[in-house]
Write a structure and sequence with these properties.
alpha/beta, 332 residues, six-stranded mixed beta sheet, 12 helices, 12 strands
Length: 332
């Protein structure tokens, strides 16, 4: 920059403003500076510039898993908005582990990122680490799996209504003994989908049986064993509402292992953004979340707050609508 300033007989400050396309510098001067910079192969040091302005131009995305297609699509939406705004995205995986989530949030304090987009791990029951994180003043927006203890924006889907719709769909398909596979009772999405399930049973005059609710917090093998045990002990179960796609796949494995025909003996519906849901045998009926849009809208809220240096308020929260896609796994 000193060499540019000397050769063009300009101040370093003017050269800097010209390279940043500042309105304070004339178009003619900008052209001169940029032309010589190109000739000398000059590239501004973005990292040094960020340090000087106390910003990193980086956001952190904390998610519980990547083998769930919802999070893959949400990351695509986040990355698109970040890239358009000149921000980098760092992705951190908690693997549904509370201790790992605490360690990641501790690492993200101290200005390493300008803001955080976060979906809470299923093991998380205590949120002190998130309160400490917010106290360090990074902007935080929750998406999908949220923490109600933190006063900030949330971008979610209509989990209660979708849980009701999924259960109602099974009932209308003829099911009378419906099992619900819960991702986690600690999470708001788990509670809301469970409440929708219970409300649909009540509206259609079916009893709620707590023994038909399973916590599918284990790995795939453990979940398959759990569902197999339920279907063995309760052979009257004729419908399964899985709250996440991995539990739907475990249900397929359990039914296949027991020789239970889908949908003739057991009908299955699941929250899922699985791209190959229609290719499963039988094709899986899904409640599909607008995952890409959830990621995109969460990133917009976060980056708007960072750029304008304004706090993020709960009133900026959004609820986007999921959609039911009926396929053969729930056929009458």
């Amino acid at each position: 920059m000193k060499r540019l300033a000397q050769e063009l007989n300009l101040s370093i400050a003017t050269v800097s403003r010209a390279l940043q396309d500042s309105y304070e510098v004339s178009a003619h001067t900008k052209e001169r500076v940029k032309a010589l910079a190109a000739e000398l192969n000059y590239e501004p040091n973005a990292y040094a510039s960020s340090l000087r302005r106390n910003i990193s131009k980086t956001i952190g995305v904390v998610i519980p898993e990547v083998n769930n297609h919802f999070f893959s699509l949400a990351i695509n939406g986040i990355e698109e908005v970040a890239r358009q705004s000149g921000y980098h995205v760092l992705i951190y995986l908690t693997h549904e582990d509370y201790d790992r989530e605490v360690a990641i949030t501790q690492y993200l304090t101290g200005g390493r990122v300008d803001g955080i987009l976060m979906s809470v791990a299923s093991e998380t029951q205590e949120f002190g680490h998130l309160l400490k994180l917010q106290a360090t003043k990074p902007a935080i927006v929750f998406f999908d799996r949220v923490c109600d203890s933190i006063a900030t924006a949330q971008v979610t889907t209509n989990d209660f209504e979708s849980g009701f719709q999924a259960t109602e769909h099974l009932i209308q398909a003829g099911c009378r003994h419906i099992a619900h596979l819960l991702v986690s009772g600690n999470l708001s999405i788990g509670r809301m989908r469970m409440q929708g399930y219970q409300a649909a049973l009540q509206q259609y005059g079916l009893p709620f049986d707590e023994a038909l609710v399973l916590d599918g917090n284990g790995n795939d093998e453990q979940n398959t064993a759990l569902i197999t045990a339920l279907l063995t002990a309760r052979p009257e179960v004729d419908g399964i509402f899985a709250s996440v796609e991995r539990l739907a796949i475990s249900s397929y494995h359990a039914c296949n292992g027991l020789g239970r025909a889908i949908p003739e003996q057991v009908k299955i519906i699941s929250f899922s953004n699985l791209g190959v849901a229609a290719l499963l045998d039988p094709a899986l009926t899904t409640i599909t979340q607008p995952a890409y849009e959830i990621g995109r809208e969460a990133a917009k809220i976060l980056l708007r707050a960072i750029e304008k240096k304004k706090p993020i308020l709960p009133t900026q929260s959004l609820v986007l609508k999921s959609e039911l896609f009926e396929r053969r796994s729930t056929a009458k």
